[in-house]
């Protein structure tokens, strides 16, 4: 396993991490989830990412059970706050002081730990003063409940504002968690250069485009039985736009010979492509079966040739999404409850 520093901090994370966004508590039963976590640990993965909103807190509980008994100091556990949890009351969402402090306490209880290594704002909150949010994160760090603070899907401007307050309040703001893969490159124009400047790393989710870059979805054919695209409980709606696009799927199939030439599966090629960006500290991978987790981890440390990188760009062509404005549109602009 390769390890990388998280932002301009001294914390190292595994270049391939394990996340349980649409698996634990929904797609995968607890026993199978524990096997997947064990496979991750056996493969050298030490970094685990979750969020309180995943399966409405169930994902955190399952991850906590799966990691119970492991040496805490040998793990990096990440979670997030923002989206609704519980019954969805008026204060069960957002980045207010109330929601942040209640959420970190609930997360720690479910994860069976005294602290998380990284606590992340799951989106930017347009309805809470940024000062209130960052002061609350500073309190969480000073209370020893989180070691570092990060965010998810913040724009370059939002990162600058948040980082300035973090410096003023003297707590470590080290990461941003965006969607990033060979098909979705919206962070490259603005977020990545700003992050380099500020000393912030990317903690990337969806490096294989939720399975699309594995090549298992074929143009003109229905999605394979049991795949994410057929399971409404595991995020089918998130990838409908991709699997319904035959032209895009045909372009993805052109990646197969490039992967073979590198001695990789198409999924490993996609993960290695993401890790080729030096601003990426870790690529969060999932998996509903232990063998998937093991195979994903093997992409760590794989360096792609310049010829392969050019070939990926040529194969995907205008199917690649690059509009930096999509980051701003990822955060709700009206109250969820």
From TrEMBL:
**UniProt keyword list:** NADP, Oxidoreductase
Q: Which Gene3D superfamilies match?
A: NADP-dependent oxidoreductase domain
Instruction: Give the UniProt record's GO annotations in the biological process aspect.
Output: methylglyoxal catabolic process
List the Pfam families hit by this protein, alphabetically. Answer: Aldo_ket_red
Gene Ontology cellular component terms for the protein in this record: cytosol
Cite the NADP-dependent oxidoreductase domain residue spans from the record: 17-315
Q: Which GO terms describe its molecular function?
A: oxidoreductase activity
Instruction: Tell me which domain of life the UniProt entry assigns to the organism this sequence originates from.
Output: Bacteria
Per its UniProt record, what PANTHER family does this chain match? HYPERKINETIC, ISOFORM M, L-GLYCERALDEHYDE 3-PHOSPHATE REDUCTASE
Q: To which protein family does this belong?
A: Belongs to the shaker potassium channel beta subunit family.
The name on file for this protein is Aryl-alcohol dehydrogenase-like predicted oxidoreductase
């Amino acid at each position: 396993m390769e390890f990388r520093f998280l932002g301009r901090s001294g914390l190292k994370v595994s270049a391939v991490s394990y996340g349980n966004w649409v698996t634990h508590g929904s797609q995968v039963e607890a026993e199978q989830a524990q096997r997947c976590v064990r496979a991750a640990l056996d493969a050298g993965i030490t970094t685990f990412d979750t969020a309180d909103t995943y399966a409405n807190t169930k994902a955190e509980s399952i991850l906590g059970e799966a990691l119970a008994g492991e040496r805490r100091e040998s793990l990096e556990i990440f979670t997030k706050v923002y989206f609704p949890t519980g019954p969805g009351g008026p204060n069960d969402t957002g980045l207010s002081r109330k929601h942040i402090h209640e959420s970190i306490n609930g997360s720690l209880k479910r994860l069976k730990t005294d602290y998380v290594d990284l606590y992340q704002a799951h989106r930017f909150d347009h309805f809470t003063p940024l000062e209130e949010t960052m002061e609350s994160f500073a309190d969480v760090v000073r209370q020893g409940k989180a070691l570092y603070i990060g965010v998810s899907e913040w724009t370059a401007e939002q990162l600058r504002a948040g980082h300035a307050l973090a410096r003023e309040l003297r707590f470590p703001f080290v990461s941003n968690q965006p969607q990033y893969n060979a098909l979705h490159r919206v962070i490259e124009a603005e977020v990545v250069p700003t992050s380099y400047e500020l000393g912030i790393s990317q903690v990337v989710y969806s490096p294989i485009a939720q399975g699309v870059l594995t090549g298992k979805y074929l143009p003109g054919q229905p999605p394979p039985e049991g795949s994410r695209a057929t399971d409404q409980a595991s995020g089918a709606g998130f990838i409908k736009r991709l699997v319904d696009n035959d032209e895009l799927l045909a372009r993805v199939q052109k990646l197969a010979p490039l992967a073979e030439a590198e001695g990789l599966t198409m999924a490993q090629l996609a993960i290695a492509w993401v890790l080729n960006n030096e601003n990426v500290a870790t690529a969060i991978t999932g998996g509903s079966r232990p063998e998937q987790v093991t195979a994903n981890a093997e992409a760590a440390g794989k360096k792609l040739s310049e010829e392969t990188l050019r070939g990926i760009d040529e194969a995907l062509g205008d199917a690649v999404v690059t509009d930096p404005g999509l980051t701003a549109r990822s955060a709700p602009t009206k109250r969820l409850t």
